[in-house]
Design brief:
Layout: H1 2-5, E1 13-16, E2 20-22, H2 23-40, E3 47-50, H3 56-67, E4 71-74, H4 81-91, E5 95-103, E6 112-119, E7 131-134, E8 144-147, H5 149-160, E9 171-174, H6 181-194, E10 197-199, H7 206-214, E11 220-224, H8 226-233, E12 244-249, H9 256-266, E13 270-276, E14 280-285, E15 293-296, E16 302-305, E17 308-312, E18 327-328, E19 331-340, E20 347-352, E21 356-359, E22 362-365, H10 366-374, E23 379-386, E24 390-396, H11 402-410, E25 421-424, H12 440-447
Parallel strand pairs: 3-4, 3-5, 4-7, 9-10, 9-11, 11-12, 12-13, 24-25
Antiparallel strand pairs: 1-2, 5-6, 7-8, 13-14, 14-15, 15-20, 16-17, 17-19, 18-19, 19-20, 21-22, 23-24
Pfam families: AMP-binding, AMP-binding_C
InterPro entries: AMP-bd_C, AMP-bd_C_sf, AMP-dep_synth/lig_dom, ANL_N_sf
Domain AMP-dependent synthetase/ligase: 25-302
Length: 449
């Protein structure tokens, strides 16, 4: 780990929170945390569960766990006690790291944390993976996913070969959570390896993101998810932003209207990144030249099988799960519908594989319907599912009635494609990574709490 993440000059700043943290300081903090973890019972081959919000404490304890030869189990701090207890009972870490005290408001991206370490179990980790993550659960229960140290190192090196990533001496304005793969590898691990300064804004607001960009003269790349694009698209900068090179987004597909609003306002590329917790980054289009298509990342193979995208993955990433419909013979079955162009190799993600439904003998792609709904004026976000008929759950952006929405859709969609049920919600449910939840049960409950 020292060779991959701590190489570089000791005085180089790697984090700005907003106080600068240089490599020597970070190394010292990690060493002290490693001593605390081992004193509490963490041994090489054991596991530490980190239930910490985004913070310096999270970064330090994650790196300390690895330096101690342990497996890091990453538990999003927004999980309920019930969800955490179930995960701990299944994964049996030797120690649990959780906050004793936190400071900062709800909109703080990085918070001040005083952490405590408690002993949990006296047994080895359940697998040989370096990190355990829970999937976002946007379509159902979370899966337990493991990645080896070699896999993480390979992905960090993969990032260095992608055209358009932040370069040494530049900055990443880091918006996604480092508990999840985009913020963890594309932000923290790549930044430490490549000598890119990581700058989480002080607050989750458009003005705070712009303030982080203008706080220095060095080039800056904003890393986020579609929610953050909308946040910035609705924020008017008070001055030119010569430091801003691009914004790169991962997660769900970005509605075309939102992408246009961002590029019209800022005049920089809006890059797209496609990936999964199981394998990390799969493909990119960091200059926005091929939207919605992406180019496979170096060393990653993508193929189409029966309309589904498969991604090269030498070993099953799932812990305690042997499901050939998800992984088999070195291929991860993404459950995403898509195509691979034989001539260019470009990959186009069409949405979830289960988005194809039959209405009166006519095939309907729910992804198309959802994109149409989400693209309407007055709609902030939308989820379209099959629930005894095409059903749309819509988050308005201003005054909007179901009758108005239905009339707008009648102008744009054939009758058999139009939603039979429309539900307007003040806020659509989202996962901890900001993805829209697509569970029918959760959405029904949101309509009838």
């Amino acid at each position: 780990m020292d060779e991959v993440l701590f190489a570089g000059h000791p005085t180089d700043v790697c984090l700005r929170l907003p106080e600068p943290i240089d490599r020597a300081t970070l190394h010292r903090l990690v060493t002290a945390a490693q001593d605390r973890l081992t004193a509490a019972g963490l041994r090489p081959g054991g596991a530490a569960a980190l239930r910490l919000p985004p913070s310096l404490a999270y970064v330090v304890n994650l790196l300390a766990t690895w330096r101690a030869g342990g497996q890091a189990i990453l538990l999003d701090h927004r999980l309920t006690d019930h969800e955490v207890d179930r995960a701990l009972a299944r994964l049996t870490p030797q120690v649990v790291v959780a906050p004793l005290r936190t400071g900062g408001g709800a909109l703080k991206i990085f918070v001040d944390v005083t952490e405590g370490v408690t002993r949990y179990a006296d047994r080895p980790a359940v697998s040989g993976h370096a990190v355990i993550q829970l999937s976002s659960g946007s379509t159902g229960p979370s899966k337990v996913i493991g990645r080896t140290a070699a896999d993480l190192v390979a992905e960090v090196h993969r990032y260095t070969r992608i055209d358009g990533v932040a370069l040494p001496g530049e900055r990443i304005i880091l918006l996604p959570s480092m508990v999840h793969v985009l913020g963890l590898v594309g932000g923290l691990l790549y930044g430490l390896h490549a000598g890119v300064e990581l700058v989480p804004p002080e607050r989750l607001s458009g003005d705070a993101v712009l303030a982080a960009i203008t706080a220095d003269t060095t080039p800056a790349t904003v890393l986020g998810v579609p929610f953050h694009i909308g946040l910035l698209a609705s924020t008017r900068p008070a001055r030119p932003l010569p430091q801003l090179r691009r914004m790169t987004t991962g997660g769900e597909l970005v509605p075309a209207a939102v992408a246009r609003a961002f590029t019209d306002r800022y005049g920089v590329p809006l890059g797209n990144m496609y990936g999964m917790t199981e394998v990390g980054v799969i493909g990119t289009d960091l200059y926005g030249a091929h939207r919605p298509s992406i180019t496979p990342a170096p060393g990653i193979e993508v193929r189409e099988s029966g309309g589904e995208l498969w991604v090269s993955c030498p070993a099953s990433p799932y812990v305690g799960l042997s499901d050939p419909s998800r992984w088999s013979d070195g291929w991860l079955h993404t459950r995403d519908a898509g195509t691979v162009d034989e001539d260019t190799g470009l990959v186009t993600v069409r949405g979830r594989l289960d988005s194809q439904v039959s209405v009166g003998g006519m095939k309907v792609d729910l992804t198309e319907v959802e994109a149409t709904v989400a693209g309407l004026t007055g709609v902030a976000a939308a989820v379209v599912l099959w629930d005894d008929g095409i059903t749309a759950y819509v988050q308005p952006d201003g005054p909007l009635s179901e009758d108005t929405l239905d009339k707008l859709l009648a102008e744009r969609l054939a009758g058999y494609k139009r939603p039979r049920a429309l539900h307007l919600l003040d806020q659509l449910p989202r996962t901890t990574t900001g993805k829209l939840v697509r569970s029918i049960d959760v959405l029904r409950s949101a309509v009838n709490p």
